[in-house]
Specification:
By secondary structure, this protein is an alpha/beta fold. Helix content is 30%, strand content 24%.
Length: 345
């Protein structure tokens, strides 16, 4: 009798252990891959446009049952609160409100029942540029369930504006969008993905839910919700291999990131962070800086502290650093940074 009871208890224990097992640790559950597009089928602008064929293939893959495409505001809310999201959760975002969003992307995304967000710079719509959507089209998208976000009143680099100017431009765009849509947008995307600490604090104080850059990486609860990364796609970097890499990517749980400022004070900068997940083999970590010919030097210190040194000075403008680490099932951990140098080396 006792043997039977012990046997049943062990079986039950093993069964419960199996139920509680996950493919990946809890550290990865509050994360998502956010995709970024601009134009569609506009062959004159290959650096910002995705071909129609590429778009249709992207939609075909994103529509597969293994992927969970959610509204961006719901993902931002979950990440901010540290709430769990299903594995392979994805959001689709589109910047600038070009007309091809309405004529090319929306019919296809609507047919596939895939939610997406459009970030709008209001002056480009008010000025009635022929390449842009008009307010009636934007209102039609909004009424159909498309999320509309703030992308500044004018589409220009905010870091080159004084604080009074960029604050006024954020507020003006918010007021204009609220007048048109009948509700305040809760999301903001920085033009060109350029921001600083003051901008992030201002958006937080204004009550926005989250803000987004243009650097690659998996958005997670371990990153600043007012500078979340997005994987950008165009004709050159819109292949299916890159898409699959992005939508299957996992975060690298980190803390104690330096530098805290996006605009660097020392060139080359010193980049460091501490990895929280003790299961990761950091000896396989690789980090690459854009526009550099020499590899980055990575030091792994006690306590999972990672320090990255660059052998070349960063060029003026946007510089991106991508850190990747292989995981199981042919997936990769992906962590990205954007650092801005205002001066030439």
């Amino acid at each position: 009798m006792k043997k039977n009871i012990i046997s049943i208890s062990l079986t039950l224990l093993l069964f419960l252990t199996f139920l509680n097992q996950k493919a990946y640790p809890e550290d990865y559950s509050s994360s998502a891959s956010i995709l970024l597009y601009h134009r569609f089928g506009e062959d004159k602008y290959p650096s910002t446009s995705l071909s129609i064929e590429q778009l249709e293939k992207h939609i075909e893959i994103l529509s597969k049952p293994e992927y969970n495409v959610m509204r961006l505001e719901n993902i931002a809310s979950a990440i901010t609160r540290g709430e769990s999201l299903p594995d392979k959760t994805i959001a689709i975002s589109i910047d600038d409100a070009f007309k091809s969003v309405y004529t090319v992307a929306w019919p296809r995304l609507r047919e596939a029942n895939l939610p997406f967000t459009v970030f709008v710079s209001t002056e480009t719509i008010d000025n009635k540029y022929t390449s842009m959507m008009n307010w009636d089209q934007i209102k039609e998208l909004h009424k159909s369930g498309v999320t509309i976000g703030n992308h500044l009143s004018s589409h220009e680099s905010m870091i080159h504006l004084d604080s009074v100017t960029w604050k006024n431009k954020i507020d003006f765009a918010q007021k204009r969008l609220t007048e048109i849509l009948g509700e305040e947008p809760s999301l903001f995307a920085y033009p060109y993905g350029e921001a600083n600490i003051e901008m992030k604090s201002f958006l937080r104080e204004r009550g926005y839910a989250a803000a987004f850059g243009q650097h690659s990486g998996v958005a997670s609860e371990y990153l600043d919700p007012f500078f979340l990364p997005r994987f950008s796609f165009n004709e050159k970097y819109g292949g299916l291999d890159r898409l699959k890499l992005a939508i299957n990517a996992l975060p690298i749980p980190i803390k104690d990131i330096i530098p805290k400022k996006i605009i660097i004070e020392n060139n080359p900068p010193f980049l460091g962070f501490t990895v929280i997940d003790n299961t990761l083999n950091l000896n396989r970590l690789q980090c690459f800086a854009s526009r550099q010919s020499k590899p980055s030097i990575i030091d792994i210190l006690p306590g999972k502290r990672v320090e990255i040194r660059f052998q070349e000075k960063f060029k003026k403008g946007r510089n991106r650093v991508n850190c990747t680490l292989p995981s199981k099932n042919n997936r990769w951990h992906w962590l990205g940074f954007q650092l801005i140098s205002k001066n030439s080396p």
